[in-house]
Amino acid sequence: MRAYIRLCTALIMRFADPADPLIVEGLKTLGAPLTLYCVTNPEGMTETWWNGGEPSEEIADVLRAAGVSYTPGQHSMSYEDFTRGIAKKRRRWQGRQRFEPRRECAMAVSCGIWLVTPVDDFWPNHLQDLGDETPYGLWGKGDPAKLRILTEYFQKCVAVVGSRDASVYGADATSYLVHELAQKSHIIISGGAYGIDVAAHRAALAAGNAAVPTIALMAGGLDHFYPVQNSEILHRIVEEGLILSEVSIGNTPTRWRFLERNRLIAALSHDIVVVEARWRSGALNTARHGLEIGRELWAVPGNINSPNSVGCHRLIRDGHAHILSEIQDILEAREGFDALQEEKQSHDHEQSTILDTMSEAQGRLWDMMSPRAYRSAEELAGHIGLPLRGTMVELSQLAQQGLAETDGFGWRKIRQAARSAS
């Protein structure tokens, strides 16, 4: 029976825009099968159904048992307004009803795409925070069982969004923050686009310890990935995480679909991090949706002369977002300052003990090395003013102490936490 409800929902998603008041009313009080019947049959609606809801007790039981907002008879509009509105829109919707049920299913199966709706066990519960803007369903690629994590570990879900034309600073800040979040098993949610989005996905995949390192919310059908240039990373997300969309197969992204998609990013996330945003930005649209449904909002401060940071500074100035300079800010806000302060003091003590054992040259090398990116010995030697041979000796000694490692081409530091974990 759930499969039948799922199919009816898929056909509704084919022609109806998100958050359409008529469809929302129908799904709440009639259920997906009866709503679809009324939409596709000019003489379909009766006052008996309007007052009593789904006539099939079996379907009605599934709707009620699923815990969705199924309230037959409790209407927010009159019978006349509903039937008149459906009749008016039916003419426009007819042009979108191109696919038959069998074709819809065949396309989904051939593309490895599945559909989840509010009556399914895997449905992410926090989408209901959107109220009447809750999606009718979600198309997905990846393992659908992973959707459970979005509900069970909601506090670990962090959206990272920002400019598509990210600056070097913005990309670096994204990589740094996401790497630290992923190391603590956070699930990184973003939009799969250029700039900050793809930097967030890459960093999460590179460092993620979570069962679902990252999730991408798309603004088009999942039969084709957009942008095409990000296809490689998006295929990796399918393998290790999830890709989701409320847009039916075969539909391409449009500007308004990107804006509609942003509310889903906000709803699936406990915290929203805006790394870079111009004065008018899709990232600010995501932030607005998050504020409306009570999500924690964070903004990364940037160069006061950079147009890419104007939106972040605006969020901070208006008191909408907390300043984010390190993930400790998020963790302290979430788990309590005292416990984390004790952990930080312990970590600082361990780090100071390590530094005390280093020579002056090793200390300078340690400061210059990144915990993530490998840097060549030549580059490090140039920065600290040592001959290359002497630099190699110092790097080898750090490696022997478990404080540095090489990939054969460059070097990076190993922090105490990483050493303890290994």
Automatic annotation (TrEMBL):
Bilayer-crossing regions: none
- Where in the numbering of this chain does the Smf/DprA SLOG domain appear? 115-333
GO biological process terms, alphabetically, are:
DNA-mediated transformation
InterPro entries (alphabetical): DprA, DrpA_SLOG
**Superkingdom to which the source organism belongs:** Bacteria
Under SUPFAM superfamilies, the record lists: MCP/YpsA-like (SSF102405)
Q: Give the signal peptide range.
A: none
Family, similarity comment: Belongs to the DprA/Smf family.
Q: What is this protein called?
A: DNA-protecting protein DprA
Give the originating organism: Rothia dentocariosa
